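Thanks for the sequence, V.! I ran DUF6916 domain-containing protein right away. Repeating your input here for the record:
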Amino acid sequence: MLDKLTYDDFKDYRSKTFTLEGIGGQVEMRLLDVRLSPYPGLPGQRQPFAILFVAPDKPPLDGQMYNIRHPGRGLVEGMFITPVVPPPEFIQKTREMRFYEAIFN
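Predicted structure:
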């Protein structure tokens, strides 16, 4: 299923809350941004894209496989999400928060 996801599957969910499900329980995360890669995908494949989440500072999450859920989007299983340094335009707006990203090639 992950290989079928595209930018369009997430673009309308900016600022919406997703529930991240992992071994340690659940964490509420807000979808902050969805970005297309400036590089095209291989012929016949999707355009690479990334999704950026923001979550409370605690608990800190490791980069690993998680499931994410949103009532309108549904369940996405086995997504690799990793902590990242936020883009400069978001640093001032979100103090005491952590940023997480998933990349789809």
